Amino acid sequence: MTTDELQQLLAQQPIAVLHRLARGRVHRHFRAGKRRLIELLLQHSSQNLAGLESDLQALIGERQAQPQSTPAPARQTAPRHPAPPPNRRPHRTHEPESTEPSVSLAAWLEGLGVPSPQPFVPDPWQVEALAGLAETDVVVSVPTGSGKTYVAVEAARRAMDENRTVIYTSPLKALSNTKFTEFSKIFGSDRVGILTGDRQDNSQAPILIMTTEILRNLLYDAAGGEIDVRLDTLGLVILDESQYLADPERGVVWEETIIFCPSQAKLLLLSASIGNPQDIADWLTSIRPSPCRLVRHSKRTVPLRAGYLHPNGKLTPLFRTAGIPYGHPGQLHPEAKRLFLEYEEDTLPSGRPRR
Amino acid sequence: MPPSIHPVDLIAALREKSLTPAIVFLTSRRACDEAMEAFDHARTVLPPERQEAIATALERVIAQYPSIAEHPLIPTVQRIGVAAHHAGHLPSWKIAIEELMRQGCLDAVFATTTLAAGVDFPARTVVITQSSIRKARDFMDLTIGEVQQIAGRAGRRGKDYVGFAVVTPSPYIDLHVLTKGFTGNPEAIDSQFTISYPMVLNLLKAHPHEQIQAILAKSFAQFQLNQRANVLEGKLDVLHTQMEPFGPRVCTDWITQWHTFDQARRQKPHRHQTARHESPEVTARFHFMTPGRVVGLNKGRGIVLRQYRSKGQKSPMVTVLRAGGAITESPAGTVTDVFDRLFECAEQQGYPWCTSESFDELLYQLTELPTRLPLLPILVSKESDLIPDAIVQSLGDFPCPSCSSRPACQKDYLVASRLRQEQQRHIKSIQALRTSLWHRFQERIDVLQKFGYLSPASHLTDDGEWARLIRIDHSLLITELIRAEAFAGADPAVLTGVMASIAHDDDRPGAFPRVSTGLSSLLGQVRKLAESLSPYEDPPLLRADIAAVAERWVSDPGLTWIGLCRSTTMAEGDIYRLLARTLEFLSQLHTLRATHPGLADSASRAIDLIRRGVLEELP
Ligand SMILES: Nc1ncnc2c1ncn2[C@@H]1O[C@H](COP(=O)(O)OP(=O)(O)OP(=O)(O)O)[C@@H](O)[C@H]1O
Ligand SMILES: [Mg+2]
To answer: Closest Cα to atom 2, ligand 1: which residue?
Structure first.
């Protein structure tokens, strides 16, 4: 294959393939647009075009072998057809799901609107988390926006009813401030205090809000012999956004806090969905006085739909189904697929349509 | 066709389909600000009653945070019902926008992906325009967790039946990253445990040295290391069974016996020098240069693909995967660093020594490595495990030639020795996994002893007693500065300047006010000390221009916030964060009032001077 032919073949690939090819070849390849990326790839491999070519062929082969995970398959041979209308069955044998008609835009938009006000009923997982806390530590891992704050508030209320103090930590000062306002409204401002790096407001209140670093420091001071009555009566420690455990710089602070958390206090870890919540729970079980309860689910309370908006203003569903096809990233809506391919082609600054 | 949709058209399209309110995630603050500017000439304006609703809502926030009363964006926000929200803004402005959003006054907000988790900021729709974000000065693909965190803001409980995540392309987008993000399971959390100097001091303050290992064992880091060790132990069990047929024969350790005999027999004429010149360090480190290990070489870093001994000299060699995909053979002695980072590597006989999947993965990992990696602590044992000369020389004394088990040994040797090598490798890895945290702790102890914060018996010295209260980044530099009395006589403004330059870790360039001569000469001293400490602690950026911004705020109490903002190109939100972080550093100095009253007093005066105007608004 000549350099020109190789360049052509590269230009026909979706950008994802080029990025995979660029891994280890082109530094900071994600900054490059498609054309620049091709230039850089050719430049880098000028001594070893054959190597580049064989890698490329391998990638193409791989993507053809698993069309499921292919948002935009290579199409050096396939001529471009307009997508079949959603209600006709397309003749693609390698995509088993394509026997189902794709959702229409109207159906995708259906149901949009504002529900009528409902009385507040706690979700089963919220009840479960609170019940668990009555006995032991609890790790909650649920999607963003599910209602973790309710669990924190109720748990705090119950701890205070038993004359125990509560510490609530968040990773960010801004979040602490919001929670301070929110908790003050719920419990009354005399019962809520906040500690930041340089200021203490109402620092003997039964509910204290602080960043996780501040709590870690309190725990170190107490371990070092300083007397802190607040820790003696401590009944509950809430670590919000505890997926920060994975933060490269600050994650260690969550570990320190959990290791040194007084054993008479219950721990409540609130986290967005993570991949291994069971590991976290098992870890807590292994170091805390009683076995940790894990409350997890990954279903969003408000269902999500994904769409694709073309720069010309045309909107289409992103997937064949109205909802998210969990586990099947390749089930793109034919219209979205077609528009995106067109986009990739058009954003090549050289601009020559290749058909 | 334009590379991405025009912001005005985007909002129009969303409004038309009733997909507002929406959060539009853009790649940079600049992009957010430019999107706002794009509305300067837009004709669509909000109906008067909605404009009024915004004005009323804003008034309530302004009553609490007067600093935003004159915010230049207020008229635009009111006129078009669209706002921007990013780290360049003051926290009070961000709170105002969040409040407007909660009350449903806005149709859209342009934000960067730094829009923090947990901030109650939901919308009907999120618009995603990118598939990678800037992290640690480089662009990285969004993780599945990040895509879901972004998408998680779509659909407000109680206000929407459904939420929408709309992808609109820009030239850098990789659709696959997003579709994978929508449909996949979030990544597992990996421990990021590190052992810092203050951690060591505080642990040793509260617990005797011999209890520390048990405390470290409680970390999630050790929990995960144990998980890995357990997997290896499982493999070890399997190997154990596989080794059964190769148990003791005429000699108990026939494998070594045969190995020695075989080697001696083959190489008798030219008496081989089994790595006789190898230093104990090389020998010790060679054990850790196993496939998947990240190592440093004279030029750049690489990942070990295999280790072997060279044919002639039997010197220890490694095959290393280098950036760009090159595979090089290097003597183990030329490896400058052995890092505490081991990747999965599916080994394979013959070039390129691992499966092609593994190769791709490793190559990718290599490009994604952070610039700084912890070194693997390796204990160098003095005794060498070389074949003693005596054995080689006394070939004549080998029983093998006439042994009854000779044919069996000869036949089984290759398989048996490979199994045993594997066994030994696993045993070493398991040991490393079980003890690495402890080794790292020991390393920190060594440094703290060297500097005199710990006694030889690992008790806190007088200096250690106060130094443990400094629990921030660059703690060693700060405590060493205090011991060198660098701050003696420094006024609050100069102290603030130095602390700001230590606290600030962003290298975004800009134009800044001039720094005073006093501060400038002190910074020179700090820089020198930081450099001398660099083997033990990464030096901070120590930007004089940043120091000058903080210094000015403290040295001139008449300076208004607007005046300060005008003196630099730094964004308002960045100045705020700089001063807030400097406050935190100063309050750590303030905790030293028992031992360093002068310094603590200066810090406390600096804190009072910093806290005014905008800095006073939030707790
Ligand atoms: N059981 C419930 N029924 C109806 N609405 C609820 C319920 N629980 C919580 N909510 C509402 O859901 C919204 C989101 O709640 P919350 O902020 O606690 O989520 P979160 O899980 O903390 O999200 P994040 O990951 O962003 O921190 C709030 O408006 C809250 O009032
Ligand atoms: Mg929350």
So the answer is: A122
CB A284 within 8 A of CB A309: no
Chain Cα centroid distance, residue A302:
16
The DSSP element (H or E) to which A268 belongs, if any, is: strand A266-271
Answer yes or no: is the C-beta of A146 below 6 A from any ligand 1 atom: yes
Mean pLDDT, all residues of chain A:
85
Maximum distance among all Cα pairs of chain B, rounded to whole angstroms: 107
Mutation site for A-interface testing, chosen from B175, B182, B359, B367 by largest number of A Cβ within 10 Å: B175
Is the distance from CB of B138 to CB of A28 less than 8 angstroms? yes
User: Total domain count for chain B?
Assistant: 4
CA of B177 to the centre of ligand 1 (A): 28
Single-letter amino acid code for the residue at B180 = K
Interchain contact, A240 vs B118, CB within 8 Å: yes
pLDDT band at residue B393 using 50, 70 and 90 as cut-offs: low
Give the integer Cα–Cα distance in Å for B273 and B610.
69
How many residues in total does chain A contain? 355
Residue B384 has pLDDT above 60, yes or no: no
Q: Are residues A263 and A332 in the same domain?
A: no
Taking the CA of A273 as reference, the closest ligand is 1
B96 and B237 belong to one structural domain = no
Output the residue whose Cα is nearest ligand 1's atom 11. A147
Here the CATH number for the domain that contains residue A142 is 3.40.50.300
Q: Are residues A142 and A265 in the same domain?
A: yes
Q: Which atom of ligand 1 is nearest to the CA of A241?
A: 27
Closest CA to B27 of A31, A35, A272: A31
Asked if residue A111 belongs to a domain, the reply is no
Find the domain containing B478 and state its range.
469-617
Interface of A with B in 54-73 (CB under 8 A): 58, 69, 71-72
Q: Which of B356, B265, B336 is nearest to B294 (CA)?
A: B336
Which amino acid would we find at residue B176? Answer: H
Range of the domain at A165: 124-296
Q: Which value does ipTM take for this structure?
A: 0.78
Mean of pLDDT over chain B: 89
Query: Using CA atoms, how far apart are residues B44 and B58, in angstroms rounded to an integer?
Result: 21
d(CA B574, CA B579): 9
| Higher pLDDT, residue B174 or A138 | A138
pLDDT tens-digit map of A203-257: 899 999 999 999 999 999 999 888 887 888 999 999 999 999 999 999 999 999 9
If pLDDT is split at 50, 70 and 90, which confidence band does A86 have? very low
Radius of gyration over every alpha carbon of chain A, rounded to an integer in angstroms: 27
Cβ contact B437:B212 at 8 Å = no
Instruction: Choose among A144, A217, A340: nearest Cβ to B169.
Output: A340
CB B583 within 8 A of CB B603: no
**Distance of CA A95 to CAs A65, A320, A329, B184, Å?**
11, 12, 12, 19
Contacts of B207 in chain A (CB under 8 A): 223
Do residues A198 and A316 both lie within one domain? no
Structure tokens at B245: 């047929």
Which range, of A165-179, A241-255, B347-361, averages the lowest pLDDT? B347-361
pLDDT value at B376 more than 70? yes
Of A194, A286, A304, the CB nearest to B151: A304
Q: Specify whether the backbone of A47 is left (phi greater than 0), alpha (psi in -120 to 50) or beta.
A: alpha
C-alpha–C-alpha distance, residues B319 and B337, integer Å: 15
Yes or no: say if B369 and B294 are a contact pair by the CB < 8 Å rule. yes
- Check: CB of residue B95 under 8 Å from CB of residue B65: yes
- A282/B contact by beta carbon, under 8 A: yes
> Angle formed by the axes of helices B572-590 and B492-503, to 10°?
110
CA end-to-end distance (rounded Å), chain B: 49
Tokens of A13: 């690939």
Spatial CA neighbour of A152 closest among A170, A135, A173: A170
